[in-house]
Structure formats: C-alpha cells, structure tokens
Amino acid sequence: MAVSDHVDLEQFMAGVEKRNPHQDEFIQAVREVAEDIFEYIEDKEKYHKYQILRRIAEPDRVVSFRVCWEDDNGNIRVQRGWRVQNNNSIGPYKGGLRFHPSVTESILKFLAFEQTFKNSLTGLPMGGGKGGSNFNPKGKSDNEIMRFCQSFMTELYRHVGEDTDVPAGDIGVGAREIGYMFGQYKRITNKFTGILTGKGLEFGGSLVRTEATGYGAVYFLQNMLDYKGDSIDGKTTVISGSGNVATHAAEKILQLGGKVLTLSDSKGYIHDPAGITQEKLDWIKNLKTVQRGPISEYADKYDGATFHAGERPWSVKCDLALPCATQNELTGAEAAVLVKNGCIGVSEGANMPTDLAGIKVFKDAGISYAPGKASNAGGVAVSGLEMSQNSGRISWSEDQLQEQLRDIMKGIHDSCLEYGKKPDGGVDYVKGANIAGFVKVADAMIAFGVV
Length: 451
Ligand code: NDP
Ligand code: 2IT
Description:
Layout: H1 9-19, H2 24-41, H3 45-49, H4 52-56, E1 61-70, E2 76-87, E3 93-99, H5 105-122, E4 127-133, H6 142-156, E5 165-168, H7 175-189, H8 209-227, E6 236-240, H9 244-255, E7 259-265, E8 268-271, H10 278-291, H11 297-301, E9 306-309, E10 320-323, H12 332-340, E11 345-347, H13 356-365, E12 368-370, H14 372-375, H15 377-392, H16 398-420, H17 429-448
Parallel strand pairs: 3-4, 3-5, 6-7, 6-10, 10-11, 11-12
Antiparallel strand pairs: 1-2, 2-4, 7-8, 8-9
Helix pairs in contact: 1-2, 2-5, 2-17, 5-15, 5-17, 6-7, 8-9, 8-15, 8-16, 9-10, 12-13, 15-16, 16-17
The protein binds NADPH dihydro-nicotinamide-adenine-dinucleotide phosphate and (2Z)-2-iminopentanedioic acid.
C-alpha cells in the first residue's frame, strides 16, 4: 500500500465516531492519542500495513452482564457490570474496576484504551483492561456492599485469571470491595491465586500499593520540575479529589516540602490557606474511608478553612496542580485560569481529568504538563509488582518497593523525553507518552501477525 492511500486523522476519527456512537469519552481518548500517533507513523509503513491503531482502538472484547443483589429492605436491585479487555499483546489484561453511578460502556472503553498505553509505559508485562458497574456505593451498608461485590464476582470470575485478566480498584473500589470480591472468587473456584491486586496484606497484597498512584504522580511532577532545574519544595499545590489518589498525592507533596491548599469531592472543594498538614490529612483519610462523609466537614472542623459548594478548586492561585478526582474535571477555561495565576506544573493523578481544550491550553503555555497515562501509572506499576510477588509466592520489603516505584516513574519520564522532546528544549509529555506507550504494543502486535 502506498503512503498516499492511508486514511488521514480526520477520516480515521470519522470511522471511530461512526463505530462508537454516543461514546464521547472513548472518542475523546482515541483522538488525544491518534493526533500524536498519526504524525509519528506517517513514514512508518509497517504500522499502517498492520492497521495497528485501528486495532488498538477496537477492544479485544467487551463483556457486559447483569448484577442482581438484595438491599437491606429485601428489595431486588439490578445493576449492569462490564469488563472491557482492550489489548493483551504485552501481558494479561490489567486495570481497575470502577463502581460509580456515572459508569457507562464509553467510560470503561476510554479507561481500558488509556490503560493499554499506560501499562506499556511502566515497562512491565501488562495488557490493558477496565471494568466496573453503575452501582452507587454511597449510602450503602457494609452488608449491601458485600452482597453486591459477591454478585458482581459471580459473573466476573469467568473472565479473569492470574494469566488472563487481573482487575484492581478504581473510583468506589478500595480495600473493602477487593476483599469481598477476592473472597467470592476463592469460594467459587477453590483457588487462591492473584486474580486481583490491591489485596489486603494478609492475603497476598503488596506493601506500597495503597500509596502508589498518588506518590507516583508526585514523583512524576518532581521529575518534570527537576528537568527544569526546579523542585516541589516551598511550592503551593492545588489538588482535586479526596480519595485514594488525592490523599496520597497530598501526603507526598508534604514530604517533599510543598504546601497543599485544597482537596475536593463530588460536592465541592475545601480551601485551607494555612495548608493541609499530615494530621489534617489523616483526619480526611478517616472521614473518607471509615466514616464516608463529605469533605465539607473539614471546613467545620478547621478554623480558617472554607468550603465551596458545587465548585472545583482550579481558581485558587497555586504553583502546581494535581487533578485527582475524575475525567473531564478541568476544562479549557479552568486551565487558562491556572496558567494566568502562575501555575507551572500539572500532574494528572486521575484518568483524563483535563479535556482536549485544557490540554491545548497547557501545551500552548509551555508549562510542565503530564497526562494521566504517564503520571498516574505508579498504581498499576505496583499492581504489576504485586502480580510478580504472587507468582513467586514471596513478599518484598517496603524499601524495595518504594525504590522500584521511584525508578519506574523515572523510567516513564525518560521514555516521555525520548519521544516528546521539542527543538526548544521543552517537553511534550502527551506526545512522548502516547508514542512510547504505542511502540511497544505495536511491535508486539506486528510480531503476532494478523490475530
Ligand atoms: P476514590 O473513589 O478513592 O476517590 C474518588 C474521589 O473523586 C472522591 O473524592 C470522589 O468524591 C471524587 N469524585 C469521583 N467522581 C467524581 C465526579 N464525577 N465529580 C466530582 N468528584 C468525583 O478513587 P481514586 O482516588 O482511586 O481515583 C481517582 C482518580 O484516579 C480516577 O480518575 C481513577 O481512575 C484514577 N486512578 C486511580 C488509581 C488507583 O490506583 N486507585 C490508579 C490510576 C488512576 P466523593 O467522595 O464525593 O465520591
Ligand atoms: O487507572 C488505573 O491505573 C487504576 N485504576 C489501577 C489499575 C491497577 O490494575 O492497579
């Protein structure tokens, strides 16, 4: 096929839109990647010939199933569950499970697609997958959560396996849910194998997995600043979210001498001009994982702090920003406010938190901006290390794992430099991550032929 016969970016995207009607998040994620890959493969015939991007943008399979459970009042409730197995060219499918009422097939397809590139960037042998349900864990009793998780796993168990597909947590799925799901898998199959990561330390979990995503996002930020001869020490930081990723990102910022001004949840954000200390952070962790209360309670407890209902924290003046809640939580207009206020570094803890207009604002401003597929890869990286420990039936020490996490994040930063360095010395981390993540998966696919 001659190069001139290739479809161009817009023709390719028209096909993606036609084949995935109304799946806006999936189309958005594919476009963000395709813009860089089309440029990169322009003169690389093998990637055209084997239709690599076209194939990565079509999940290997999407499994959808009914999940019935009984609430505490004896009502039968029906939810939908999914597992999207996007690509297993470089290892078993790997990626989290999300329980949130906003979950749709489009959201899980975008996450599984992103995960394929992210997992490749870690350097570990993991393919990309994602799953979850439109189940809303908020306000449910422990028993209701347990019954839902058991019912969900009663179907999911057919599709997972330590060498097939290894899910983990994501929004709404933490240690409690992983425990219930692992228990049900073990009960159904009578097997004790590493089919989930993020497990409790008593039953095959890994040290550092809980902290890994947030810590990793800050290590990535540190690498970006270091590259410019700067550091986190003394800088003000605005963070969204108050879950696993946000609280651990905040913790690492504090350890590196930064000041954390905000956190948020789905109801609004809190602003503490005095700074959120480790003690205050421990209080928030307890609020969110034990009491499961709203972040607004922080403003009632701590003098000087304010709660801003229904708002996001991006208008608070800061040096650094870490979006750690959910997709499309930082728009072009909000990105412009951050830049105007002097923000010099953005590291995404969440998946696709910045929309396409926001990405353009950050790129045009030339600030250090890391897309989630690079900067939040620490979580899945330590999940990969949990898989290795499970296979070897061993446990590594905290020091060893902390060091591996730091090394892996540095390795991802180096990969972004390899493909994303601009002639002016700046770095396009989006481009770097997309191409570096693509090349490994693409070359494996070529080795397999047409399968
Ligand atoms: P958690 O469930 O622990 O926390 C999610 C946080 O985000 C909560 O503060 C929640 O608020 C808020 N939130 C969720 N949905 C929305 C929404 N629609 N609008 C506003 N706020 C929202 O999840 P994680 O911390 O694990 O995940 C956060 C992000 O990080 C997600 O994008 C996830 O995909 C990504 N991620 C997670 C990894 C992990 O290891 N856990 C790894 C890599 C990425 P509320 O408390 O009100 O619900
Ligand atoms: O988005 C993600 O990378 C995760 N939710 C973690 C996935 C994992 O398998 O640890």
